[in-house]
């Protein structure tokens, strides 16, 4: 079994992950020429900002209730998130304009890692409220993942939109 959840470390790391998502989606929006893709990335960035605000408010509530135990001073949440960010950032580094498909695949990878992160946090706690909190965020990140995958499927001509075939070769 994984080590027990340190809620303060989890929240600070989640805030860092959401900040990374916000920065990545803004960067991808700036690099994407397609207006629809640009708007999707800006919407995803807005959602990440909302998640950061949510974690901030949750932390303040824990502090007010006397339930916040800060992690050690040497804890750096970015050290947990940085390797994944560097790998994702390397995909578009140095490009003046990322093509839409590359940008979407980068966003998809970020969302996949977010889902995995929240799943791992859920596995490490028995606190019902905390599990529900991370489950809610995981579900939102999964919805982002599905949205991005649907856009990729549409761009690549896979013939699917949200997992539903756009046409039926057997019809008729």
How would you characterize this protein structure?
This protein is an all-alpha fold and 172 residues long. The protein has a single domain (7-69, 76-163), classed as Up-down Bundle (Ferritin), CATH 1.20.1260. Helices cover 70% and strands 2% of the residues. It is built from 5 helices and 2 strands. Strands 1-2 form a two-stranded antiparallel ribbon. Helix 1 packs parallel to helix 3 (77-90), helix 1 packs antiparallel against helix 4 (100-123) and helix 3 (77-90) packs antiparallel against helix 4. It starts with 6 loop residues before the first helix and ends in a 7-residue tail after the last strand. The model has no long low-confidence stretch (mean pLDDT 83).
Mind sketching the topology for me?
Elements: H1 7-31, H2 35-64, H3 77-90, H4 100-123, H5 128-155, E1 160-161, E2 164-165
Antiparallel strand pairs: 1-2
User: What oligomeric state is this?
Assistant: single chain
Runs in which pLDDT lies below 50 for 5 or more consecutive residues are: none
Strand content: under 5%
- As a whole number of angstroms, the C-alpha radius of gyration is 18 Å
User: Structural class of the secondary structure composition?
Assistant: mainly alpha
Whole-number total of structural domains: 1
What's the CATH first level?
Answer: Mainly Alpha
Q: Helix coverage percent of residues? A: over 70%
Shape: elongated
CATH superfamily: Ferritin, core subunit, four-helix bundle
* N-end to C-end Cα span: 54 Å
What is the number of beta strands? 2
């Amino acid at each position: 079994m994984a080590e027990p959840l340190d809620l303060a470390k989890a929240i600070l790391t989640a805030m860092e992950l959401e900040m990374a998502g916000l920065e990545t989606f803004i960067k991808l929006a700036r690099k994407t020429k397609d207006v629809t893709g640009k708007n999707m990335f800006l919407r995803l960035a807005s959602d990440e900002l909302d998640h950061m605000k949510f974690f901030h408010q949750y932390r303040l509530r824990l502090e007010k209730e006397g339930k916040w135990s800060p992690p050690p001073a040497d804890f750096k949440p970015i050290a947990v998130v940085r390797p994944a960010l560097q790998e994702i950032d390397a995909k578009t580094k140095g490009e003046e304009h990322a093509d839409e498909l590359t940008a979407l695949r980068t966003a998809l990878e970020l969302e996949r890692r977010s889902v995995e992160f929240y799943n791992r946090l859920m596995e490490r706690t028995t606190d019902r409220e905390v599990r529900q909190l991370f489950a809610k965020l995981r579900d939102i990140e999964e919805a982002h993942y599905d949205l991005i995958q649907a856009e990729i499927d549409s761009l690549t001509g896979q013939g699917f939109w949200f997992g539903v075939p756009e046409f039926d070769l057997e019809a008729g």
